[in-house]
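Morning, I've got a small favour to ask if you have a moment. You're getting the sequence in one-letter code plus the fold written as tokens. Thanks so much in advance, here it is:

===
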Amino acid sequence: MSELTHLNARGEAHMVDVGDKGSTHRVAIAEGHITMQPATLSALEAGDLKKGDALGTARIAGIAAAKRTWELVPLCHPLALTHIEVTLSPRQDLPGVNCLVQAETRGQTGVEMEALTAVQVALLTVYDMCKALDRGMTIEGVCLTHKRGGRSGDWSR
């Protein structure tokens, strides 16, 4: 079992010191989806939601969330993101919307938390935009699918 780096010798939570780590190009990809009733998906795709463009709003919300992850997750470092891409894709077979996020930085710590946070907030925004039609929507399958860079190297699900 690996050592938990966010705990000090006394078992107390602390922010990991990354000051001596070298800066490298780091990439994280995360995904998830929201399922909804077929009629809700149809309204979303047709642009018939009272609140407006759900996918455009969710894309911006995901980007903003990635940039503010350090404010939401107590032990995360504030990162200078060099790239964040939020892709939202309606799917008839779910029915619902898939969210894929790629986050990048050049720094001393990874961007996994930023990618995961962006997925969650983008999907929560879709929920918020569609909830008048469908309160039974479900956010599922949020996970890290790939990370690259840093001491631990590449990892894929």
About this structure: The longest strand covers residues 24-35. The chain has one domain: 24-156.
